[in-house]
Write a structure and sequence with these properties.
single chain, 359 residues, alpha+beta, Beta-Lactamase, Alpha-Beta Plaits, 2 domains, six-stranded antiparallel β-sheet, elongated
Length: 359
């Protein structure tokens, strides 16, 4: 994965400033300095998964705490998703609403850290004391990039039994660098993901599907494997948009994408071909198996009821199938042409049906 130079420079500049600040805070603690440099080098890998691992491994020692947790903030859903932690009693896939944690909610709303020396007696406390903790302090630090909250870093418990001003000041400085690194990683991964997926449905996009299909055709030509594809089109989709609005149209596209994923196996490729047209690439699948999958998807969509302003309506799907033929299929375009002609026939014959194409 190639790392953009401006992101490398941005993180390096931040860590240089941080190292200057920490000289006065750390004094002769060369071991802590080494760990901080290791953190910077590891986080610079620009992988959110790697950042999560390194944080769990090094952050408690660097920040002089026993336990920490970092939650990513989803501003659209107002939810906090646990990204990294070292708590033995937290589930790795934990996701909570912002309102469920008063201290994190307030730190995000104010854009400032909250430091409670005795968390159990604070107005933020909910539940019972944790037997794991030897000390009572709790720190919640909002991580921000250009005044936008990306998450919250929580610190608690250590062997000293307290957290002093020097510890906190250093933690705030480190959190700035961590926020920048995480933000860069998420941005970079989003760009990478969008380069191969459709922005609305999350399915593979047309270009990526073509690349995968080409590889499958080559594999079939070499090993005489089976391969089928299904072209699918939502019937009268323009009328749906005109009647119920484009937002409802997008909802239907999302629902259809979800239905496709439901019937996909691990090696199948589900993609948005363009507009309301979709395609399923089915390796190791003969036409009979493809027909079964197409019918399951078609019947599932037909059975669903959509609603707009109190009015119920249905949508249907037409499907065209093509199977790889070693004598006639020379490239992906040959396979797509057969499936597209079968889809056209399904439309011409009345829609809401599956037609098997013939080379």
């Amino acid at each position: 994965m190639s790392v953009p130079e401006h992101l490398k420079w941005q993180e390096s500049e931040t860590v240089r400033n941080l190292l200057k600040k920490q000289n006065n805070l750390l004094g002769d603690s060369l071991e802590a300095l080494d760990h901080l440099i290791y953190l910077q080098k590891s986080i610079n890998l620009l992988s959110s998964e790697e950042i999560s691992r390194v944080m769990a491994e090094k952050l408690p020692y660097i920040l002089s705490v026993k336990y920490f947790s970092f939650f990513l903030f989803d501003k659209d859903r107002k939810k906090l998703r646990l990204m990294s932690h070292n708590h033995p009693d937290l589930q790795p896939d934990l996701s909570i609403y912002q309102n469920d944690s008063p201290i994190m909610k307030e730190s995000m709303a104010s854009g400032r850290y909250i430091f409670e020396q005795d968390f159990a007696s604070s107005r933020y406390f909910r539940g019972r004391r944790n037997k794991l903790f030897n000390s009572d302090f709790f720190v919640s630090i909002p991580l921000m990039i250009e005044n936008e909250i990306i998450g919250v870093l929580n610190l608690n418990d250590n062997d000293k039994g307290f957290y002093n001003v020097g510890d906190l000041d250093f933690a705030l400085n480190v959190s700035e660098f961590v926020a920048l690194s995480i933000s860069n990683a998420l941005l970079f991964e989003t760009v990478e993901r969008l380069s191969v997926t459709d922005g609305l449905t999350g399915l593979d996009n047309h270009q990526h599907m073509q690349s995968l299909l080409k590889n499958e055709v080559i594999r079939c030509q070499r090993y005489s494997s089976s391969l089928s594809i299904i072209m699918m089109d939502i019937d009268h989709f323009k009328n749906v948009n005109d009647t119920y609005g484009h937002q409802k149209g997008d909802d239907i596209l999302l629902d259809f994408a979800s239905t496709m994923k439901k019937f996909c196996r691990s090696n199948d490729v589900a993609a948005r071909y363009g507009g309301e047209e979709f395609i399923l690439v089915l390796p190791e699948t003969k036409v009979k198996g493809a027909f079964y999958i197409a019918e399951r998807i078609r019947e599932e969509m037909e059975s669903q009821i959509f609603n707009h302003k109190g009015k119920d309506f249905n949508v249907t799907v037409s499907c065209g199938i093509a199977e790889f033929d070693s004598n006639l299929t020379k490239n992906p375009a040959d396979l797509i042409k057969v499936a597209d002609q079968a889809l056209y026939k399904a439309k011409h014959e009345g829609r809401n049906r599956t037609v098997i194409g013939s080379p």
